Structures
1.
Amino acid sequence: METLIEVKNLMKIYNPGENEVRALNDVSLTIMRGEFVAIIGQSGSGKSTFMNMLGCLDIPTSGSYFLNGKDVAGLSDDELSDIRNKEIGFIFQGFNLIPNLTALENVELPLIYRNVPAAKRHELSVASLTRVGLEHRMDHKPSEMSGGQQQRVAIARALAAAPPVILADEPTGNLDSASSKEIMQILRELYEEGRTVILITHDNKIAASAKRVIRVIDGKIVSDTNYGDGKSIEEIAKQIEEEGDKQAYV
Amino acid sequence: MSQFFEYLKMAVSNIKANKVRSFLTMLGIIIGIGSVILIMSLGNGIQGVISGELEGIASGQIVLYTYDSTGTYYITNDDIDAIVEEVDGIMAVNVYQGFEGSTVTRKGEFSVNGSGQMASYQYFSNTGLLKGRYFNEKEYLAGTPVCLIGEADAIRLFGSTDVIGMTIDMTPNWGNSVSFTIVGVEKEPENSMFGGGYDNTPVSLYFPMTVLTQIYGWEMDDYYQIYLMAEKDADTASITTQVVSLLERRHQCFGENIYQYESFNDIMSNINTVLNAVTMVISLVAAISLIVGGIGVMNIMLVSVTERTREIGIRKALGAKTGSIMMQFLSESAIITMIGGLIGILFGIGGASLAAKIISMVSPEMAFTPSVDIITVLATTMFSSAIGLFFGIYPAKKAAKLSPIEALRRN
C-alpha cells in the first residue's frame, strides 16, 4: 500500500513560554491510502488540534507533515487553502453548511474554488448528492432539512471533488442514533469503495466502525491498533473499551 | 474570469437574502447620487432659461462706450461709418439719443421717453412687430418724424393697437415740438420679467435720430456709447478688439483704455460661470452625503463580516483563498452601491422632470428643460461604484484575514 499521510515529530504549542500548552507533543504517524482510521481521545486530549493539523487548517509549531507526497508543514495561507481544496474532504460535527445556499449550491462550493466549469460542477454535485441519497432534496436550504440530511449534504460536499482524504470530525456528534447509524454506514461504504477515511471522535462505539484505532492522550499517541477487516463492529468496540480501561490505569 | 462571475453570483444571492438591510444600505447612496443628478440637471435647466432669455435680447450684441473723465472723447458719425466699412462681421451699428417730453391724447396727459435710433434699430429690437413696419434708411436720412410704439403704450394712449398712421404730438421738455406719425407697433416682451407698462411709467417712442435735429436745432454727432450687432457666429471678441483699436487710431489715444466695451456674450459666459460655481458647490454638498452613504455601506459590510464569520470559515476550509473572500465581499459592496447609484440616477432624473412639470404649470411661458449629460451620469455611476470599492476594502480585508479554525469555532 502507498503512504498517504506521513507525520513526524509534530508539535503544536499554544502560549509558548511559562504557561505553554503542548496540544500535540511529538506525534509521529503514517496512514496508508485506503485505510479507515479513527483517532479517539477525551476532550482536551489534543485530538482536535491533531485534526486541524491533518486538515491543514492550522500550522504546526515544529515537525513535518507530508500529505500525498507534498510537504505541507511550511505552506502559506493560500497554499494551504489549495491543499484543503484538492486533498481533503471535511465532514464537521456542526455540518457547517452555508445557510442561505441550497444543498446543491453547498456541494458545489469546493468545486467553485477549484475552478471547475459550471456544467461539470453541476454534474459532479448531482452525482454526489445522489450517492448520499438526497437527489430529491437538492434545492432545499439546510434549514429545511433534518440533521441527518444536513450531514449527508456535508458528506456529498466532501465527496464531490473526490479528494484523497475524507476527514470526519465527530460527524455524529449532533445527531440522533438513527441518523448516526446512517452516517456511519455511508462512511463505511466510502472505505469499502477504497477511500481513505479519518474519523475523529470521543465515542468508542463510533470509532469501532474504523479498522485502525489511534488513541490520543495529553497530546501523545498512546496506542495504535490495527484490527483488520476480519472483526465485527461489536468485537472492535469491545476491544477499544478494554484498551481504554487499560490506558486509564497507566 | 469564470471565478469572477461566481463571486458576483454569491454577492447577488447574499444581497437578495438580506433585502431590507441591503435596501437601507443603498438608501444613503440613492439619496447622494439622486441629489447630485437632480442638482446638476436643475442647474442645466436654469442655465438654459437664463441663456434663452438673454439670447433673445442680446446675443451677439456689443456695447462700446467711452470712459473718459475729461469729456473730450466721443464717438462720431464718421467713426461709425469707419467701423462699418473697416471691420468685418458687423451686421449693424446703432446709437441712441434719448429725450423727455409729454403728449396729450383723449386718454389724458402722458410723459414720454423719446428714443432716437438709427435705421438699424430693427436689428436691436428683440420683440418683433405686432403691426406696421420699422422706419427705413430713407426716413432716417431725411429726418422724417415717424415712430414705433409698444403694444401696451398704444393701448394706454389710444385704447387700441390699431394706431398705424395716427399722430402723436410731442412736446419735449427742451426744444421744438414734433408731430410723429406711427408706422409700427412693437410686441411686448414675451415674459414680463423685464417688462414695463405700468400706469405711471413714461410712454416709450422709437424714432429716427435725425428727427432730433428738428427738436434741438443741431445735428447729433457725438455719442458716449454705441451698439454693435455681430453677425451670427461671428467672433465678438475679435470684432471688439478691432473696433477698439480702430477708434484708438482715429482718436490718437492708444492704450489709454478710453474706449471700453461690454459684450453680451461675455456677460452670458459670466453668468454661466457663476451658475456653474453654484451648481458645483451644491453638488459638493451632495457629494458629502455620498461619502456619508459610503460610510453606511462600510458599516453594514463590517456587521455582515462579523455575522458571517462562520460562513467565511467554512469557505476557507473548503479552499477559498484570501483573494476569493476579498472579491466576494468587495463585489457585494460594489453591487450595493452600484444599484443604489442607478436607482439614484433614476430618482434624480425623475425629480428634475417633476420639477420641470411643476414649473411649467406655474409659469408656462418659461422654457425650463432640465437636462443631464451622459458624462455626468457615467461619472456618478463610476463614483458610486468607486465608493463601494473604497469603503468595502476594509471590511473585505477583515473577512479575508480570518483564520479558518478561528472562524469555524465562532457561532
2.
Amino acid sequence: MHAAVVVFPGSNCDRDLAVAFEAAGAQVSMVWHKDTDLPAGVDVVGIPGGFSFGDYLRCGAIAANSPICRAVADLAQAGGYVLGICNGFQVLTETGLLPGVLLRNAGLKYICKTVGLKVETSQSAYTEGYNAGDVIDIPIAHHDGNYFAEPDTLARLQGEDLVAFSYTDNPNGAQADIAGILSPNRRVLGMMPHPERAADTAHGGTDGQALFRALAGALIKA
Amino acid sequence: MKATVHIMLKTGVLDPQGEAVRHALGALGFSGVKGVRQGKVIELDLDDGASQSDVEAMCEKLLANTVIESYSVEMG
C-alpha cells in the first residue's frame, strides 16, 4: 500500500498519520499543498488534522482550493481512497467530496478528550476490521466538529449506510450524532475523531489500529 | 472598484456564536435582545469592469459555503 499524506501550512497531525500508515505496512509519501500531482501509484491519500491556513475564512476552505486538492479530487473521482481526519474531514466537505459541513461545536468550546464511537457499518475498507455496533475509544480534538447537513442529505447518508461512526455521547451537537461518513462508493471517509492517536500502546489506546490495518489489508488484496 | 460581500448563516442553521453574544448582552443588562446572528463582511478591491456575476462566482467557489451560508453582493 502506498499512502500519501498531504501537508498544509498549519497541519499538525500529518506525521502522526504517516506513522499510523507505516505501522500498518504502508509506504508513505508526504505531499506539499502546492504540489499539483500525487506520486505515481498512490492507493490512498490521507488528509490530516490540524488548522490548515489558520482556519481562515472557514475551516478547510482555503486548503480545499489548494493545487494538491484538485489532484486528490481527481483521484477520488477515479475511485481512489481518501481518508480525511478532523481538519481533513472539514477539507473533504469543503471540496464537495463529502456532503454537509462541520459547524462550530454547539457548546462553543474546543474539546480535547477520548470519546466513545459506535461503528455504524463494517462495510468499507476502513471499517471492516470492526463489527457494526462495536464501541471503540478514540480521541477527538476540535472546535468545529458539529456535523450539519440538509435533512434529505442526512436521510440519504443513513439510508445508504454511509454513516461510518457515531458518537455514543454527542460532544459537539453533530446531527444524528455523526462522527464520520463515507462517500457513495465507500472509498472516501471523513471523520472528526483521530484514529491515528489511538494506534500504538504508547498512545494509551489502540482502538484506531484496526482502521489502518483493515485499509492496508483491503488495498494489498486489491 | 469595490465590492462588498455580506455572508450570513442560513435561517435554520444554529449560530452558537450569535447565541453566546445574545447571552452576553443579557448578562450586561441589555434586555430585549431576542436574537443575535453573526455573519461576515468581505470587502474586495477589484479591477474596473468587474461584474456582479464575477463576485457571485467567487462567493460560490470560495467566499461562502452555500450548504450553510447565504450571501449578498453590493457593487461600488
